TrEMBL record:
Listed GO CC annotations: mitochondrial membrane
Compartments where located: Mitochondrion membrane
Protein's GO biological process: methylation; positive regulation of sensory perception of pain; regulation of mitochondrial ATP synthesis coupled proton transport
Bilayer topology annotation: Single-pass membrane protein
Membership in a protein family: Belongs to the ANT/ATPSC lysine N-methyltransferase family.
Key words, A-Z: Membrane, Methyltransferase, Mitochondrion, S-adenosyl-L-methionine, Transferase, Transmembrane, Transmembrane helix
GO molecular function terms noted in the UniProt entry: protein-lysine N-methyltransferase activity
Name used for this protein in its record: ATP synthase subunit C lysine N-methyltransferase
Domain of life, per lineage: Eukaryota
Segments passing through the bilayer: 29-53
Organism of origin: Mastacembelus armatus
Keyword Ribonucleoprotein in record: no
Amino acid sequence: MSQTESFLDSAQVSQCESDVKRSKSRSRLGLLVTGVVGGSLVALYAAAAPFVAPALRKVCLPFVPATSAQVENVLKVLRARSGTLVDIGSGDGRIVIAAAKHGFQASGFELNPWLVWYSRYKAWREGVHRSTSFYISDLWKVSFAQYSNVVIFGVPQMVSLELKLAKELPRTAKVVACRFPFPTWVPERTAGEGIDTVWVYDTRTFKSHLQQEVTRNTVPQQEDTPDLHT
Ligand SMILES: C[S@@+](CC[C@H](N)C(=O)[O-])C[C@H]1O[C@@H](n2cnc3c(N)ncnc32)[C@H](O)[C@@H]1O
C-alpha cells in the first residue's frame, strides 16, 4: 500500500468515527429532548387533571374560590352557631380555615389532592391544624350525618345533593349555600348580595318538605281511593 493510499484510508476511518460520534450525540440529544418534553407533559397532566376533572362530572363543580365577602357572609350567618362544620368541595380550604378561626371544628371534603395538601399546609401555617381536617374524597361517597353546619359553594343543578343532605343531616343542622341557592329548598334567610349572596336553610324544614313529597307520591290521593262504604 502506497503512502497516499494509507493516508486516504486513515482519513476515511477518522471521518467515519466522527460521523458515528455525531450521530451518537444527536441521538442522545434526541432522547434528552423526548424525555424532557414527555416528562413535562406528564407533570402538566398530573397538575392540571385534578382541576379539570370536577368540571367533567355529572354534577359539574369546578374550582372557583370564594371571595372574601362570601367568606364573611358565611361566618355572619353562622355567628350564633358552634360545633362541627363541613365545607363540601373545600377548594383551597379558605372557608374551613376561617370557620376554625371562629371556633368551629371544621372539615373539608375535596376531590383535588393538590388543593387538599395546600389546605393542610395553610391550616398548619395559620395555626388551626388541630381544629381542621381535610379529606381527599368524592362528596357522593361520604356521609355528612355528623355535621351540624354545612357549607357548599355549589352550582344550580344540585337536586341530587338536596336529597342526599335531606336524608343524612340531623334535624338541628343548618346548610349555607354560596353564590347559587338550592333548586327546590326554601331558605330561611339570605345575606350579602350579587355573587356574594349566601342562602341559609333549616334542615327541619327541608326534611319535612321531603317527607310530605314522599307521602304525596306514595299514599293514593283521596279522590283515587275507592270508597269502601258505598
Ligand atoms: C366552587 S369550588 C368551591 C371551593 C371552596 N368551597 C370555596 O368556597 O372557596 C367547588 C370545589 O368542589 C370540588 N369538587 C367538585 N366535585 C367534587 C366532588 N364530587 N367531591 C368533592 N369535591 C368536589 C372542586 O374541586 C372545587 O374545589
